[in-house]
């Protein structure tokens, strides 16, 4: 009596390959080799968007230098998109990201040209960040809050200047020093420094 055993799929595939003419298998190997050679040519790598080692190295050097520049001044940090992102992530751990979000909202507000949009944006920012018991109320004094409220009656691109300046000073004196001492930024500077040392040792 014979019993049926299901055939292994990989075994069937191997048998199928074995039935192919030798010329087909050789052509497949040749195509694989040619494709590998082409992917190493700079022209094709550029066309299909694969960065070369030089490009990757250049980006790493730029980002490393940028990371180290953040500790030079608060302005250097705010000028860097990746710096703002890193600082925002840190502020989230302290539950104080509303200060940076307000500062960024004010920067965007200053770029508004339409008077109609200016007024609606001003009210939205005030309601979200400035008024008493706002959903994301920033830490500013009562006098600055009232000055900002009065500025809304004839909203201009400068109506949040005083409140924005107070919030910026608070971040610079309070949150920024802690960010520089944080484990996350210390790790980033170590990596940036090690990349710089590695680069010098290879030149």
TrEMBL record:
This is Regulator of G-protein signaling 16. PROSITE patterns: RGS. It is found in: Membrane. It is a lipid-anchor. SUPFAM superfamilies: Regulator of G-protein signaling, RGS. Residues 73-189 form the RGS domain. One of its GO terms (cellular component) is membrane. PANTHER family: REGULATOR OF G PROTEIN SIGNALING, REGULATOR OF G-PROTEIN SIGNALING 16. Its main location: membrane. Keywords: GTPase activation, Lipoprotein, Membrane, Palmitate, Phosphoprotein, Signal transduction inhibitor.
